[in-house]
Amino acid sequence: MSDQKKLNAVRQFAQRKDYSSLLQRVDTHGGHAGYPKYHYCRHCGTPTEVLTGDSVFDSYSECSQCRGLDQNGWIEDANRHYEGQ
Ligand SMILES: [Zn+2]
């Protein structure tokens, strides 16, 4: 994996964090709002899934891009970059 690819991934992570900070979160996990249920990436906060009904399978806890960061061991660097910008 090239340095350029990592740099792009880290920059995009920061963009997703900025984007998700502007979103109005729909909290449907309290049980009172009913369906659909919105799920968000645990790393960057962007929406990952909107599900209706009781989920049979586990929902995604991270988006595809953050999963890639995580698998490459870059998620800590991405967080540091974001907090340092
Ligand atoms: Zn994410």
Mind explaining what this structure looks like?
- The chain has 85 residues and is mainly α.
- The chain has one domain.
- 45% of the residues lie in helices and 11% in strands.
- It has helices at residues 3-22, 64-71, 75-84; strands spanning 37-40, 47-51.
- The protein has a two-stranded antiparallel ribbon with strand order 1-2.
- α1 (3-22) crosses α3.
- The longest helix has 20 residues, at 3-22.
- It is globular, with a radius of gyration of 15 Å.
- The model has no long low-confidence stretch (mean pLDDT 89).
- The structure holds zinc ion.
- The site of zinc ion has 9 residues, from α2.
Could you say which structural class the secondary elements and strand pairing correspond to? mainly alpha
* Helix-strand pattern: HEEHH
Strand order of the largest sheet: 1-2
Task: Give the overall shape, derived from the CA principal axes.
Answer: globular
Distance between the termini: 24 Å
**Content of β-strand:** 5-15%
Count structural domains.
1
Count of helices?
3
Q: Give a list of the ligands.
A: zinc ion
Largest sheet: 2 strands, antiparallel
Count all strands and give the number.
2
Helix content: 40-55%
Radius of gyration: 15 Å
Q: What is the residue-averaged pLDDT?
A: 89
Unreliable parts: none
What are the key terms here?
about 80 residues, mainly alpha, about 45% helix, binds zinc ion
Topology:
Elements: H1 3-22, E1 37-40, E2 47-51, H2 64-71, H3 75-84
Antiparallel strand pairs: 1-2
Helix pairs in contact: 1-3
The protein binds zinc ion.
